């Protein structure tokens, strides 16, 4: 997955001769940065000219325990896995089993988008480049923060998600179409995405520690545990704490970001990418022709001027390819991608013209450490002056958190002392959204409660806010709370329920705003 505050910042790079070794004093500097940010652990891989020049870990796998992070410790790598799913499809293209521009419906006859024309025209390539017309993060609540649906059922729900824009008209990041890509791999190969990924990509690619299922990750003793700051005013505020690793994202979305890899595995992946599909020990994972396809920009991304100390990151062009972002900095070509699942974040940078690859993974949501180290290394290998990227990212994240807290405080300062209009039992009922499914509101001695039926253990209290709007207080404090607004008809009955995140800086995958919940009795009419 790709939380926007973790991963949307473009990469700084500049064409220059690559240096032969990691920066002097890197070991001590990374450890000092880790301690300063409070992150439990970090691992880094660097590859230059086909050789691993660094694969190392710092810190601990889990707060409160002594086990150290090393080069073999596997981390959840989030949406950097999208490039792996693209590579799996590239293998099938090489085998002649499908083509990038094949229609999806020719391989998955039951596939449907909301618009019949888009259903007919959607190609394999379209699944991977974020220009489908779906809104940002559309459908993510089917598997965020957890999920109960099969991959096939998740794909079927696409038929009910209304587009936000026209097909192929603009960029909007999504995860659900990579779920379709995973289903496509199963339909074409006869193997589940998990089986195909484990055997045909990870094993053949020499990534011996990597896992493609939760069970395999849990069975790996040398694994990093997820951590996050969930005890403060907003997520990201307060000290890090260990998250329950069994409360995983929905398995249907594994093709969008469900892999776990070690620094050694990531070094192997960097070599394969920089080698255009060639395996370090001989042979190929995918052809050079498919490597070129995967790095070919398809969807133009809007350019945003980054604020203050991050201004040098602003590219002149930015495109999305097949699981990769392709952009520039002062004429240098950059191939990169970020990844984030709850409590674990990743950033991968490829400098093709310098033949250098960099991967950084952190077992918490400490962006300043992740991006600071990644950019520090990029600058080094591009021969640029040290801009102290950890400090710049740290300042940006502090300002962002302060702004979010201030905005929330402003809203909370003066709620209207009006409502609720109905007695608690009159809000109770089953409300249904066409793509998400059912949300139940119940009334009892302790007041109103809400339960998202498609999402296991996503339930909690509804506390009155103002008018006919309530705010969720989920039993699981790691789940982003939402404002829940009940609209009444002329007879004073609930006719519709809408939602939006309480936090002004909530991750986009909490796409509450896309829900259009109606009373089940009304839906049945």
UniProtKB/TrEMBL annotation:
Residue ranges constituting the Beta-lactamase-related domain according to the UniProt record: 26-366
Transmembrane annotation, as ranges: none
Residue ranges occupied by any Peptidase S12 Pab87-related C-terminal domain in the UniProt entry: 415-518
UniProt KW keywords: Hydrolase, Signal
GO molecular function ontology, one term from the record: hydrolase activity
Region forming the signal peptide: 1-20
InterPro entries with a match to the protein in the record: AmpC-like (IPR050491), Beta-lactam-related (IPR001466), Beta-lactam/transpept-like (IPR012338), Peptidase_S12_Pab87-rel_C (IPR021860)
PANTHER family per UniProt: BETA-LACTAMASE-RELATED DOMAIN-CONTAINING PROTEIN (PTHR46825:SF15), D-ALANYL-D-ALANINE-CARBOXYPEPTIDASE/ENDOPEPTIDASE AMPH (PTHR46825)
Protein's name according to its UniProt entry: Serine hydrolase
Origin species: Sphingomonas gei
């Amino acid at each position: 997955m790709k939380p926007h505050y973790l991963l949307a910042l473009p990469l700084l790079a500049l064409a220059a001769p690559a240096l032969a070794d990691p920066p002097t004093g890197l070991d001590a500097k990374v450890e000092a940065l880790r301690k300063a940010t409070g992150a439990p652990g970090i691992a880094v891989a660097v590859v230059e000219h086909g050789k691993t020049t660094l694969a190392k870990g710092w810190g601990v796998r889990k707060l409160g325990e002594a086990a150290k992070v090393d080069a073999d410790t596997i981390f959840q790598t989030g949406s950097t896995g999208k490039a792996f799913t693209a590579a799996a499809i590239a293998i099938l293209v090489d085998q002649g089993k499908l083509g990038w521009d094949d229609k999806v419906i020719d391989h998955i006859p039951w596939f449907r988008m909301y618009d019949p024309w888009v259903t007919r025209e959607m190609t394999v390539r379209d699944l991977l480049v974020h220009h489908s017309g779906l809104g940002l993060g559309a459908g993510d609540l089917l598997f965020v923060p957890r999920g109960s649906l099969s991959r096939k059922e998740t794909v079927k729900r696409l038929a009910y998600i209304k587009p936000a824009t026209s097909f192929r008209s603009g960029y909007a990041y999504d995860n659900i179409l990579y779920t379709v890509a995973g289903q496509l791999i199963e339909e074409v190969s006869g193997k589940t995405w998990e089986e195909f990924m484990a055997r045909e990509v990870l094993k053949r690619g020499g990534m011996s520690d990597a896992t493609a299922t939760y069970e395999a990750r849990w069975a790996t003793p040398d694994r990093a545990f997820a951590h996050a700051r969930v005890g403060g005013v907003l997520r990201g505020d307060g000290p890090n704490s260990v998250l329950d690793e069994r409360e995983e994202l929905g398995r249907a979305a594994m093709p969008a970001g469900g892999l776990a890899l070690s620094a050694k595995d990531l070094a192997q992946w960097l070599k394969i990418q920089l080698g255009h599909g060639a395996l370090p020990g001989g042979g190929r994972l995918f052809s050079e022709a498919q490597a070129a396809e995967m790095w070919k920009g398809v969807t133009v991304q809007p350019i945003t001027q980054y604020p203050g100390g991050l201004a040098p990151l602003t590219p002149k062009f930015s495109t999305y390819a097949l699981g990769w972002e392709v952009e520039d900095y002062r004429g240098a070509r950059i191939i990169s991608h970020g990844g984030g699942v709850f409590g674990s974040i990743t950033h991968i940078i490829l400098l093709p013209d310098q033949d250098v690859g960099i991967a950084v993974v952190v077992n918490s949501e400490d962006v300043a450490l992740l991006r600071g180290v990644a950019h520090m290394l990029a600058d080094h290998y591009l021969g640029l002056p040290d801009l102290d990227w950890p400090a710049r990212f740290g300042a940006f994240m502090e300002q962002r958190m302060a702004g979010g807290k201030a905005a929330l405080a402003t809203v909370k300062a003066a709620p209207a002392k009006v409502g609720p209009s109905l007695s608690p039992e009159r809000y109770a009922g089953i409300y249904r959204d066409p793509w998400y499914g059912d949300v139940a509101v119940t009334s009892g001695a302790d007041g109103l409660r809400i339960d998202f039926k498609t999402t296991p253990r996503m339930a909690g209290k509804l506390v009155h806010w103002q008018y006919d709007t309530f705010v969720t207080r989920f039993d699981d404090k790691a789940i982003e709370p939402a404002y829940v607004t009940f609209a009444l008809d002329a007879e004073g009955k609930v006719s519709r329920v809408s939602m939006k995140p309480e936090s002004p800086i909530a991750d986009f995958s909490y796409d509450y705003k896309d829900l259009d919940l109606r009373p089940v009795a009304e839906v049945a009419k």
